[in-house]
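Researcher: Good morning. I'm working through a list of sequences from a screen, and I'd like to move beyond sequence-only analysis. For each chain I'm collecting a predicted structure so we can compare shapes side by side. This is the next one on the list. No need for commentary yet; just the structure.
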Amino acid sequence: MASLRMVLEKPWLWSFVGALVVWVATVAFTGGYGAGGMVTAALSLAVFTVIVGVGQMFVITLGPGNVDLSLPANIGLASAVAMKVMGGSDSMILVGLLAALACGAAIGAVNYLLIWALRIPPIIATLSASFIIQSVDISYGRGLQIKPPPGFADFTNWQILGIPLLAMLTVLFTIGAALALQRMIYGRSVLAIGQNIRAAWLAGVSVGRIRFLTYTLCGALGGIDGALLAGYFRGANVDIGNEYLLASIAVVVIGGTSVAGGKANVPGVWGAGLFLVLLLTMLNTFGVSAGVRLVLTGLIIVGVITAAGGERALR
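Model: Good morning. Structure tokens for this chain:
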């Protein structure tokens, strides 16, 4: 009873419960074969969703209508920039990562400037920006076949006792994000704006500056994610970030963050990221076709959101 009460009091725990149920179902289907490898693979792939998910979480927490739809294009361009700057040389890894970070941050900053200057909804501004970014990426990355430096590729795939190093570092990053959200002036300002933007302004919160920093942060995380993806998958690709459009939003909502703003949950992003990866693994293991897989994924996500109190979050 105590465990059930804790889950009901913390709806975001449903994301971890969902991940566990999916994993158990898959292990039961395979007769226990590859159970440990499945967890390792899930941790490896969930990392990329968690990184952009945290950025999207901060943006969505700003309040209704705030979302960054340029992330897929951002990731694609940043991956190309990182690979081109690194040029396959281990000595250029740090420079390439900084270039990807700067590229993403610039995109995030421009996104907010479009919202502020043109007075258009974020969904329109970031979607429009994504088309421009994609065009630049196609022109810049066309024919780009530069492999990541050996050291960088090894780093993104390195494991310690079966646990991906990237997953460990991302856990530390998310702990830092949670502390920033709850303990720092910036994080509290984001929550205040999401709860009531006018009240936050009257309380002395620099609304414009906080929103600018948040969109820039989200863009920067998309940029670093693009570089890491290019290292993990051994090369840049225009479409490398496509799956993170809906995934970055899904992990935020499934993880317990309110799309109405003012309420965020960092641990839930991890649970939701693992759930989505393991769900895809389960459906592939069951031999489900691509079309049916998309339908089932959508239905299951809706079910988990409802179980996690999604209706309450949407009010």
